[in-house]
Amino acid sequence: MMMGPAASDSPVLIEISDGAGGFGYTLDTLNKVAHRYKYFAPAVHAVPRQMTVATLQMAPAIVGGGNGGPVAPGVRARPEVSTEEIGPQMIEGVMAKGRRTISTWAIGTQGNDRPFQTVSEIWTSPDLNIMVLSKNSDPRSGDNITKLININRAEPDPSLFAPPPDYTIVDETGPFQIDWINGPRQ
Hints:
Elements: E1 13-18, E2 23-28, E3 33-38, H1 49-63, E4 80-91, E5 94-105, E6 116-125, E7 130-138, E8 142-147, E9 168-171
């Protein structure tokens, strides 16, 4: 929680996510309290595919950089974006579907003197409904690879998703705070 010379004396904050149960817990280790809160599904705003495609196709004309030429000062730059599905592939023992997105940035959009591209690949497992591999290549920051490894499809021990038995569970319905300034509660 804290940094500096007294970091070893600082309280520990632990987060537990019980996605199957729909709850999250924030453990106050100093007071042995588990703050439980309900997960809510994020709002999804459906956008017709034709609108998305039309918007992406119009973006280069709007920003003035679609042809690789410089962007006018004060205009918010957007890259030209193309996306393609990549054939299925076995990754860490699970079948995954891939999608490659290539973003082409015009001259002057990022302080650049020539056009450049960023490439992103996301591989997801339809069975697990999770990303198993992500590859990003950007000339400004280099290559970055994130991979899910040692995938174990066995059911995990349910105790991994519950607070310790000696903790008091407090159901939270809104924002909450943990008070460590005055020490543990008596």
